[in-house]
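Try this one yourself first.
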């Protein structure tokens, strides 16, 4: 029956924030483990926490929203599982000056579940950078080099796809997606295997808190590798992938972001904060 499939999208957040009033969304406090208030009580925003059930909540300082993805992988039951951020959502049909009025609704998503297996944000275009060179200029290229070695050892059939994706100038970013449960589980199994190996091979003890979050940034890029491989292997047809617009809850300083991009490209200045 059309529209009978259930989808749940977790909203990864580390703080109290306005949330959509729609059953499609499940607010999830990521990095909840070890967080206490001034009275010594566990911090409670009234949201589901990522330190329940099988979890990796303690890895949140490095893994970012991926501790929420892991929690959903191990504990959430729905036909489709998705991830968005408290400040960034998929957009729906309605466009409004009020960002929360433009968020994708469960009513809008339901009829699309019978047609698409994967939902992704519109691709980010870097134009004068490849995915590899952009990461190399803004962070540490050895992270991707090590990932390539891991793939060559653990899943070598992906290697040619990795090389192809690294040469692209655009990709699906932000660790945002909605996927059929079977595919979501397949992706998570592959992703967390690679990240687990990456942890063993990178000495991040000298990194500051911003640099230490590179596991989440690497995953943004290699999601494109996994997805392209699924297409190549005919596990997913390109026509079963739906690109959705992005809606930002807060204003982005595009001038500042653009300047940082150009300084990284031409002057070798690594990113030191998020935008």
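Now uncover the answer:
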């Amino acid at each position: 029956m059309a529209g009978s499939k259930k989808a749940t999208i977790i909203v990864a957040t580390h703080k109290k924030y306005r949330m959509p009033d729609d059953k499609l969304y499940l607010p999830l406090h990521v990095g909840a483990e070890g967080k206490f208030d001034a009275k010594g009580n566990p911090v409670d925003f009234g949201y589901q926490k990522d330190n329940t059930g099988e979890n990796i909540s303690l890895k949140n300082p490095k893994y970012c929203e991926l501790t929420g993805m892991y929690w959903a992988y191990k504990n959430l039951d729905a036909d489709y599982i998705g991830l968005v951020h408290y400040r960034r959502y998929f957009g729906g049909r309605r466009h409004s000056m009020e960002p929360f009025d433009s968020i994708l609704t469960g009513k809008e998503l339901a009829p699309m579940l019978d047609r698409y297996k994967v939902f992704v944000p519109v691709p980010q275009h870097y134009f004068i950078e490849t995915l590899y060179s952009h990461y190399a200029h803004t962070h540490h290229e050895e992270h991707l080099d090590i990932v390539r070695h891991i793939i060559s050892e653990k899943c070598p059939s992906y290697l040619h796809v990795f090389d192809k994706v690294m040469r692209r100038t655009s990709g699906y970013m932000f660790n945002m997606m909605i996927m059929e449960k079977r595919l979501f589980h397949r992706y998570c199994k592959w992703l967390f295997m690679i990240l687990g190996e990456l942890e063993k091979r990178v000495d991040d003890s000298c990194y500051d808190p911003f640099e230490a979050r590179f596991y989440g940034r690497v995953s943004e890029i290699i999601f494109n590798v996994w997805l392209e491989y699924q297409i190549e292997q005919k596990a997913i047809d390109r026509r079963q992938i739906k690109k959705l617009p992005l809606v930002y809850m807060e204003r982005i300083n595009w001038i500042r972001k653009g300047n940082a991009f150009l300084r990284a490209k031409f002057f070798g200045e690594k990113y030191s904060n998020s935008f």
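Discussion: Residues 7-267 form one domain. The first strand starts at residue 7 and ends at 13.
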